[in-house]
From TrEMBL:
Organism from which the protein derives: Naganishia liquefaciens
PROSITE patterns xrefs: JMJC
SUPFAM superfamilies for the chain: Clavaminate synthase-like
Protein name per Swiss-Prot or TrEMBL: JmjC domain-containing protein
Residue ranges of every copy of the JmjC domain listed in the record: 148-333
InterPro entries: Cupin_8, JmjC_dom, RmlC-like_jellyroll
TM stretches of this protein: none
Gene3D superfamilies named in the record: Jelly Rolls (2.60.120.10)
Amino acid sequence: MAPATKPIMAAIQKHLQALLDDYRDLAPPTCQRLSNVPNALEMLRLVHAGRPVIFDGFVPTKSSTSSQLDWCDPVSLSQVTGDAKLSIAVTPHGLADALHKATNGTTYFVQPMTEKMTLDAFFARLADKESEEVYYLQSQNGNIYRHSYEGETGNETATPELSAFQQYTESEVPFLSEALGRKPDAVNLWIGDDKSVTSLHRGGYENIYHLLSGSKTFRLFPPVEGYLLDTLFYPAATYTRFGHGANSSLMIQPDSEPTYPIPWISVDPLNLPRDTPLRPIEVTVREGETLFLPAGWYHHVMQSTGSQGICVAVNYWYDQTIQANTYALDRYVWRSLGRVDLLGEVDDESDDDTVT
């Protein structure tokens, strides 16, 4: 960092901390729980507030077919897709899309190996308790439904892998679609066991996440804490299988050129130091409950299985709503640069807060 920029960066960090302090004064470090499904107006207020909320009563399954499918039962779910081959993420330890150190000492952002198999074969892998490999259906990107919008093309060129589940799941969340005036970009099904963990990352969508079987524990960080999370750039890699049969193993394979560094969070949310300024919100979403996770929130997810050994969830991704009122952030950044006068404010801080 150039010496001339250090005072400015120090001042910006100071004011980002002041912004975070203001946020914490106004927002309690908890997740609100509602006993009923919000209507469109109430949902719009929740989106505007930008705080996570759990509520009961939302049913993402179609009433005409809901009695025909047991979401807790692997056999029932396997019958929906039959012999179709699906994309399954495979890792040696359950951490997909995460940071790992290779044998050469380099830390990579590593994506899982993707293996094609039937849903029945996938459930057999989950039931194999002696296997060291972890399997997770996390294909996302609209694996049940994809929606395109006016002016957009090419968003529905391929049939979603799990389109067979369309007969059982709704294509949108009515009260959120009405609140935002649009349909979700994607509807996804997630299936795994308690070995799969989602590493800490930032969500880019207004997210409605519903548990159909089992439970998930979210560790949440608001967007204003992002500057404390030490996002760095890492080379990209993918788990690749080496060897055959019982002698095979998954190893980190650096991606081929051209490849680009991936920005990822280096903080481990499960091992925060005692003196950390971070204040995560931990909340468990259980079977039948729904989490609204606003765009921009950082989240780490662990899961527990239901009565028949699987955890199943469906979620709806809505394009994020950009708030026009960024006055508070503008004020702090302009103050860091000594240009508060451009906002028509009186600088109520001491002269040594201004960087020249």
